[in-house]
Amino acid sequence: MLLSFTLAVLPAIGPAPVHPLSRAAAERAPHGVVAAQDSGKETSALALVGDDTKTLVRLTTLDKVHLAANYYPPRSKTKRSPAIILLHDAGGQRKGLRPMAEYLNKKGFAVLLLDLRSHGDSATEKMDWSKLDERGRTTQWAFASRDLAAAAKFLRGQKGVHTANLTVIGLGAGSSLALRHAQEDENVRATVLLNPPEKALGIKMASALTDLGGLPTLIVSPKESREIHSGLQIQCHKGNDGLEYVDLQSLKSSAKDLLADKRLNNGVYTWLKTHVLSPK
Fold it and tell me: Nearest CA to 65 among 118, 5, 129?
């Protein structure tokens, strides 16, 4: 959730309208937030002025859905940094992944952490995950691929970002969106799946992962899911003529405690260091 401070909005120049945040999000926006006017582009942003390590941004998708996000820009001043998009689980929100975002940013990545449509600070009265039935949720999740397109476009426009070196990390059902985007975006170098389900809102994980055709992928598995994820790994390798491109990292924690496991962030970083920061 956003910290509660006084919202300071700069006056608009001329009659051009400013895209509003939802009323609830606006009330929670930090001091110094400047609203960007709509210039007709698919992606616009709200930037937190005066903070060069964490910025609040708002993305606007192709179908005009406004998304709340946090952007952690590159720290390196001498070379371009690889980028990461972090995706929460269905029914979740971005705040649970904030510790991972901050950790990976300190390790050399530019990180974009967003609330998907109808979730968290991206929810509206008409688009609220908690109020949707199963059919509505499946539809919203399918359209969330546009959220990733907006996120990737935002990263391509940021200074110091290696635009052809993107990793997508998904938690739970967010793994399905990570895999779908990886199939469509040639700039994706790797995917990380945190406790992916066998099926998520109409998407079969085995089929989606097999279709990646060898893209380096890490599955992080809590103790109760090891057998399922091991089977998924074997199935994907068989589906690609024995090519071993899916790594499995098992943790002792349960699924509900996965994000709190102290080994999680370093384990993900160690794998990314090999496959993204210094690939073979």
Answer: 118
Question: Residues 61-87: pLDDT tens digits?
Answer: 999 999 999 999 999 888 999 999 999
What residue spans define the domains of the chain?
72-277
Q: Write the CATH number of the domain with boundaries 72-277.
A: 3.40.50.1820
> pLDDT tens for residues 129-178?
999 999 999 999 999 999 999 999 999 999 999 999 999 999 999 999 99
Amino acid at 187: N
- 222 vs 249: CA distance, rounded Å: 9
| Cβ neighbour number for residue 263 with a 10 Å cutoff | 13
Give the pair of three-digit tokens for residue 136: 């509505």
**Axis crossing angle, helix 145-156 with helix 134-143, rounded to the nearest 10:** 30
Sign of CA dihedral 83, 89, 95, 99: negative
Residues 37, 9 contacting (CB under 8 angstroms) = no
